[in-house]
Structure formats: C-alpha cells, structure tokens
C-alpha cells in the first residue's frame, strides 16, 4: 500500500515539476499564460461507502488550470505587433479552424494577409467596396498594389488680401504662355499678391497652378459704390487658363454676400507635358473656392490650401488605433481604412484547450465565443507597436519548484523506508 501511495506522490511531484518547468521555459514567450496543477487525493470506496478506518491511496493530477491574468505590455517598433490591454483573444484562422491567442506578433505574408509566425491569419471585419466596415467576419488583408491617382477637381483656398494695396501700375497683358516664342509671363507690376498649389491630372502627373490677385482701380470698378474689388487670374504650368474672376468685398472685409459661394470654375483644362504638348491625360474641369477670402488691413497671407487630387502611391505603413481599426498609409500622403480587428471573449476561458504556438481552441466547457470590436463587450483596447509579455512570475515558480522537489524527495524517502521495513519482515525467522 505504501509503495503505491509513494509512487503516486512521486508521479504527482514529477507532473508538478513538469508544469513549473514549462512555465519557466515560457517566461519570455509573448502572450503565454502560466499554468498550475490541481491535485486530488485518492480513496478506495465500495458500494456502501468509505469505512471510517480507510487510508488514502495517494494523490492524482486532477487538472491543469491556466492563469489568464494580464501580462506586462512591452513596446516594439513594429506597428503590426499588437497587445490586448484588457480581456479578450485575437481570433485566428488556421486553415479554416478557429483558434484564439493573446500573442500579437503579426506580420504580412506574400499575399498581404496579416498572419502570426505560424501562418495563421488574423480575423476581423474587412471593408467593403464602398469603404464601409462590414459586420461579416473574415481574414484581414492589406493590398500591396499601387493605389490609383485622383485628378484634382476642386481646391479650397483661405487667405487675406491686404486692403491697403493699390491697383497695379502695369495693366494685365495676358493671356500668358510659357511655351510661346518668345515666352510670356506676368511681371510683378501686374499684380499685388500671388500664391500657388499643385494640381493633378488623371494620370497622376503634378502641375503647378499659380494664382495672381490684382486690386481693381477705382475707374475700372464694376460698381463704383463698392471700391473693394479684386481680380483673380490663374496660370497652370505657365499657361493662362480662363479669363479671371471678380472678387468683390464688403466694407466688413468679407466676400459680398450676393457673390457667395465664390468659385472660379475652369471648364476645360488640357494638361501639358514639359514641352508644352498634351501629355495624354484627358481635359478636366477645375473649381477654385474663394468664399473664405478676406480683405483686412494686414499683409497678404494664405491660411489653408486644400485640393482633392493626388498621384499614385505605394504602401508605406500600417496604423492601428485602440479600437482595432486598420489604416494603410501611402507615399502620396493618402490613408485608407481597410478593416477592424475582432476580439473574442469566453464565459469560461479555463475551458479552452491549448493547441500550441500560444493558441487555444474552443471547447464545450469554454462556451461559445462572443465576438466584438476592441473596447466593447467587455474586451480590452488594442495597443499597436507592443506585445503582451508572459504572465509567469519567476520568483513564485522557483519557490514552487523547491516545494515540488521536496515532495518528490519525501515520497522517494518513503519508498526507501517501506523497502527497509519489508526487508526486515522478510528476514524475520
């Protein structure tokens, strides 16, 4: 009897040492959750129950429970390294099989899928063709292809024209053409102020648009009772486009209300190449919004210039906010939303079955997973550029190891003692 009891104690101590050793070995594994063995005693019982003089028959390993407490957040330089600050699990697709993990070391595969080191794909809510995040779960994927250019159709400019300015001493003698022979261009005496912006054609080629502002002389005013009038004229790549537009101001320095919104509409602009010939892009319309211009007694200053065009761009990086929304950034300054990470929660996380690679699979005892976006449904927030470290406390594990070692030695000593007793009985004559 004592032999069997001691052997069970040795096996239990050995199992405990194995659990502790696994914890220590994974003390630096991202997303690892420590385990502890739960042991129960063994009693022999009959149909009538256990007699009052029964002696236990040893110990057995009942279960191995995991501690799902939060590990330390360790920051990295990779934006695809993700940590969950709070509860929840990343959902992965392992060849169609749903697995769950707290280890957020992700990367891109050759197809642009977001995967972990074992090739399991991160899942969430992808974006549809209209740019909206859907509620349909799927694999998150980044497109590494070039994004198409967008031709400029509108520009909004905010600036102040100096009310102290006087009419130009040299009349505007356009239209000007930088490709003419000889080339012609505005001279400083023809305008008071100027600014420029870059516009794009349908092929993504940049073009410089120059805008010149000239105050109207009193004798040339369309309405002599309103002396605060300017003319705006434009050149693109040195070629004058359109006939200009009147900009009347009221006495308060604002664009006259009767003229709002004030837009300079260019109906048909043909993009040119460096030699002044058509570059192959289709003719396009442009609209310049001057509604926010003012005329105060201060130096000319441009506050904002916004236009809706851009050239083609390559993928430059990925940004992920705390709600798990993924944004791709491109070399042309554009950013696009591509999806949102999904987090899973379980009623009984200890019911999850470990499957290696710091992942778990759902079981009946764990309950059905509840999927939600980060920060909702009791799930934590996403920290991009960080990893959750192992929650193994080395000091406590070393103490447990000493205790397990003592238990092993004590049970081994008991076997030795039982053997001595047995030998003594055998040698009795």
Give a short overview.
The chain has 429 residues and is mainly beta. The protein contains 2 helices and 28 strands. The strands form 7 sheets. Strands 5, 6, 9, 10, 20, 21, 22, 23, 24, 25 and 26 form an 11-stranded antiparallel β-sheet that branches.
What does this structure look like?
Helix 1 runs antiparallel to helix 2 (about 395-425). The chain has helices spanning about 1-25, 395-425, and strands spanning about 35-40, 60-65, 75, 80-85, 90-95, 95-100, 105-110, 115, 120-125, 140, 155-160, 195-200, 205-215, 230-235, 240-250, 265-270, 285-290, 295, 300-305, 315-320, 325-330, 335-340, 345, 355, 360, 370, 380-385, 385-390. It has three domains: about 1-70 and about 390-425, no CATH class; about 75-145 and about 315-390, no CATH class; about 155-305, Flagellar hook protein FlgE (Tick-borne Encephalitis virus Glycoprotein, domain 1, Sandwich). About 15% of the residues lie in helices and about 35% in strands. The protein has two helices and 28 strands. The chain is rod-shaped and about 140 Å long. The protein is mainly beta and about 425 residues long. Strands 5, 6, 9, 10, 20, 21, 22, 23, 24, 25 and 26 form an eleven-stranded antiparallel beta sheet that branches. Strands 11, 16, 17, 18 and 19 form a five-stranded mixed beta sheet that branches. A four-stranded antiparallel beta sheet has the order 12-13-14-15, with no helix packed on it.
Largest sheet: 11 strands, antiparallel
Please give the share of residues in helix.
10-25%
Low-confidence stretches: none
Please state the overall shape, judged from the principal axes of the Cα atoms.
rod-shaped
- Tell me, rounded to a whole number, the average pLDDT: 88
What is the CATH superfamily of the largest domain?
Answer: Flagellar hook protein FlgE
* First and last CA, distance: 24 Å
């Amino acid at each position: 009897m004592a032999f069997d009891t001691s052997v069970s104690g040795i096996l239990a101590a050995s199992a405990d040492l194995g659990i502790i050793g696994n914890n220590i070995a994974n003390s630096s594994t991202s997303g690892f959750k420590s385990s502890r063995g739960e042991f129960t005693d063994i009693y022999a019982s009959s149909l009538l129950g256990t007699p009052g003089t029964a002696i236990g028959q040893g110990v057995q390993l009942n279960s191995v429970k995991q501690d799902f407490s939060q590990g330390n957040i360790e920051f990295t330089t990779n934006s695809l390294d993700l940590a969950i600050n709070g509860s929840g699990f990343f959902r992965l697709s392992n060849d169609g099989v749903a697995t769950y993990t707290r280890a957020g070391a992700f990367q891109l595969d050759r197809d642009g899928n977001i995967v972990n080191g074992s090739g399991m794909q991160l899942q969430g809510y992808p974006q549809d063709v209209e740019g909206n995040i859907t509620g349909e779960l799927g694999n998150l994927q980044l497109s590494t292809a070039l994004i198409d250019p967008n031709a400029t159709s509108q520009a909004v400019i905010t600036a102040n024209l100096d009310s102290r300015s006087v009419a130009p001493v040299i009349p505007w003698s356009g239209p000007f053409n930088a490709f003419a022979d000889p080339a012609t261009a505005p001279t400083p005496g023809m305008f008071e102020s100027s600014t420029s912006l870059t516009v794009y054609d349908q092929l993504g080629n940049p073009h410089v648009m120059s805008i010149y502002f000239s105050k109207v002389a009193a004798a040339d005013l369309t309405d002599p009772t309103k002396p605060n009038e300017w003319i705006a004229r434009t050149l693109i790549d040195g070629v004058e486009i359109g006939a200009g537009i009147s900009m009347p101001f009221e006495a308060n320095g604002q664009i006259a209300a009767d003229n709002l919104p004030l837009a300079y509409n260019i109906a048909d602009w043909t993009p040119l190449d460096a030699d002044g010939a058509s570059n192959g892009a289709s003719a396009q319309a442009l609209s310049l919004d001057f509604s926010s211009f003012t005329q105060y007694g201060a130096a000319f200053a441009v506050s904002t210039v916004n236009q809706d065009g851009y050239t083609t761009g390559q993928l430059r990086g990925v940004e992920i906010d705390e709600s798990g929304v993924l944004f791709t950034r491109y070399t042309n300054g554009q950013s696009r939303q591509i999806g949102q990470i999904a987090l899973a929660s379980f009623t009984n996380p200890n019911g999850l079955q470990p499957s290696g690679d710091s992942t778990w699979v759902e079981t009946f005892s764990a309950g059905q997973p509840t999927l939600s976006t980060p920060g909702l449904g009791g799930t934590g927030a996403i920290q991009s550029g960080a990893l959750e470290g192992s929650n193994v406390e080395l000091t406590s594990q070393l103490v447990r190891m000493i205790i397990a070692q003592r238990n092993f030695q004590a049970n081994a000593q008991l076997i030795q003692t039982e053997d001595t007793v047995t030998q003594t009985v055998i040698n009795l004559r």
